[in-house]
Write a structure and sequence with these properties.
228 residues, alpha/beta, 5-stranded parallel β-sheet, 10 helices, globular
Length: 228
């Protein structure tokens, strides 16, 4: 760990001890402190409240309180605002992933992730970015944001506070475009695009662009199948 890189603290939640041990070793080798381990969702919630980590690596399928409910409990109103949850899943189109994202998770990783990707991903999320490539964003939303399914997970938010330009940015962002692609499409600098995205997140009280994508579908700003 370099002198100018702030320490990163993590909680690992998985019901398999060998999985937790493997991830702990990977994180420790890069100077990331594991503040606690949890074998189920209830333990994860308690560990987060006790140690206030930057990141939670959260398995979905665990006995008792599962990863989705644990994510919701961790990120609800009185939870630590600085904590981000990254979902660990076996399959990249796990049926629970969309629900986890709408519960507030900042992204997801496959359990087959390489050590290098794992560490880089956690630092990306710590910096405030979302851990979903544009192609994965599109694929998840297309599969799970069905217009005929009940939408009871994400709370309603009023988009009327956004400017026409911000609505345009949000609509394009929801199709999976990166900041560079947004800049090219709108003929703006990437710095300006980043500022627009930041204001959108602030006005809508969202943690990251993953939640912005989900919200765009939940509010009907964009519909599944609607391309960029």
């Amino acid at each position: 760990m370099t002198a100018d890189r702030p320490a990163l603290r993590a909680v690992i939640a998985d019901d398999q001890a060998l999985v937790r041990t493997g991830f702990r070793m990977i994180l420790a080798a890069d100077g990331i402190e594991v503040t606690a381990e949890a074998a189920d969702g209830a333990e994860a919630v308690a560990a987060v409240r006790a140690t206030r980590p930057d990141i939670v690596l959260m398995d979905i399928r665990m006995p008792g309180t599962d990863g989705i409910e644990a994510t919701r409990l961790i990120l609800e109103g009185d939870g630590p605002q600085e904590t981000r949850v990254v979902i660990l899943t076996t399959y990249d189109l796990d049926d629970y992933v969309y629900a986890a994202l709408t519960a507030g998770a900042s992204g997801f990783l496959l359990k087959s992730v390489t050590p290098e990707h794992l560490v880089a991903a956690l630092r990306l999320v710590r910096a405030g970015d979302a851990l979903l490539a544009p192609s994965i964003t599109r694929r998840l939303i297309e599969r799970f944001a069905r217009p005929d399914e009940p939408r009871t997970i994400a709370p309603h938010r009023d988009l009327s506070g956004l400017t026409p330009r911000e609505l345009e940015v949000l609509r394009l962002l929801a199709t999976g475009l990166s900041n560079a692609e947004l800049a090219s499409r709108l003929v703006l600098s990437q710095t300006t695009v980043k500022s627009h995205v930041g204001r959108i997140l602030s006005k809508l009280d969202l943690r990251d662009r993953v939640q912005a994508v989900v919200l765009a579908y939940e509010t009907g700003l964009i519909t599944p199948g609607q391309g960029a």
